[in-house]
Amino acid sequence: KVYRMDEDTLKYTLVGVTKTTSYPITKLSPGEFTDYVVKPYRKAAGVTCYGTVCPDYLATTCPAKVKRLAADVTSVTSLHLTWNAVANASGYCVYQKQSDGSYKRIAKAADNLASITNLPTGKKATFRVRAYIKNSGVVYWGAYSAAVFAIPETNEFVMTP
């Protein structure tokens, strides 16, 4: 039997029963933290015997996709990136498009702002961001934001779909 902590009553409520070692949990929100426990049982001769409840497990879902990424050129070689904060995010990673079309992580941010410096003057620079959540030593990644590009010298900013 799988139980989930009810945040209102602070008691565990039954989520479902399974005969296997896994159970799908659906209809969760992005970045949601929830405590679960599993209580093994066996029925024999009309009697239900319960085993020891496993220690609670704080599970999380991946964070939501970063939205509204925007660039504000601050000089001919630098810019600020901003985006909407993502609920429960531990932080964000900023990626810049490379000449071969791949993206390379260039910065890590604790909040929804990153300053990017040492950009080549007059060259298009394309970025995207994704949020992450750390839980019990495991990192859960959100989807990449839509890409945004800027050309520092001309102060041009375009959001790509």
Helix and strand topology:
Blueprint: E1 2-6, E2 11-16, E3 33-38, E4 41-44, E5 47-50, E6 57-60, E7 70-75, E8 78-82, E9 91-97, E10 103-109, E11 113-116, E12 125-135, E13 138-141, E14 148-151, E15 156-159
Antiparallel strand pairs: 1-2, 1-3, 3-6, 4-5, 7-8, 8-11, 9-10, 9-12, 12-13, 12-14, 14-15
Query: What percent of residues are in strands?
Result: over 45%
Major sheet characteristics: 6 strands, antiparallel
Question: What structural class should be given to the helix and strand makeup?
Answer: mainly beta
Please write the string of helix (H) and strand (E) elements: EEEEEEEEEEEEEEE
Could you describe the 3D structure shown?
This protein is 0% helix and 50% strand. It is mainly β and 161 residues long. A hairpin with a 4-residue loop joins strand 1 (2-6) and strand 2. It is elongated and about 80 Å long. It has strands at residues 2-6, 11-16, 33-38, 41-44, 47-50, 57-60, 70-75, 78-82, 91-97, 103-109, 113-116, 125-135, 138-141, 148-151, 156-159.
